[in-house]
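[audit] Reproducing an earlier prediction to check determinism. Same input, same settings, fresh worker. If the tokens differ from the archived copy the diff job will pick it up downstream; this log only records the rerun itself.
[audit] input (255 residues):
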Amino acid sequence: MKWEGIILDWAGTTVDFGSMAPVTVFKDIFEKRGITVTNEEIRRPMGMLKWDHIQTMLKMPRIQQQWKNVFGTAPQNSDINDLYNDFTPMLLHMLDEGTKVKEHTIDTICELRRRGYQIGSTTGYTDIMMKPVCQSAAQQGYEPEFWITPDAVGGFGRPYPYMIFRNMEYFKWQQVSCILKVGDTVTDIWEGKHAGVKTAGIIIGSSVMGLSQDEYGNLTAEEKNMACEKARKVYEEAGTDYIFQDIRDVLCVAE
């Protein structure tokens, strides 16, 4: 198909294999308060604005009960603010390790541009978080024509569709049915569906798969197949239009 435009996510899709930087920080800020959280609990809201992500985690029954046991009361908005205020500087410190461009990204983008495509992007990071990510990615050779964070849409990030609409406005794309949104979380898929665009989920190196590059590399061939199939089922349950093994598969659906 000839799309009007293609919009890509960042961490887990084009940079930071496995979206590991935020996972590490989420775990640390909760452990600092005596709360143990699992990778699955951290990854379930992945892709949201990080304040919303923390709020969603605190509503999970197991985490909320731990919070009550430690602090004697249910978490309040002030607690979300405190956690978020810890999260931002810790993530910025981690981003030196979390900005490596994923394999095949640069070659795929070069080919898409050769075919006449411009590349937009959305993220769950804020402006202050994205600036070092964009700078590092550009130094490595990846630089989409447009990026936007929830800061630019009044804090209404994913699963709201507004960042996609701002991409469309910037590029003057007209038809939502001719836009492809590619991401690595269920929240990415919801964002695309709420905007009315077509959606695609990346398997290898995604937050849905939930493995670091070393963890994935150390799996046997059979274990890799099992991990990929598990991720595929998550995307299928979310109603994803296309499921890609890695970013190169975008080229199979973009004329």
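[audit] rerun output stored. Observation attached for the diff report: The chain has a mean pLDDT of 96.
[audit] end
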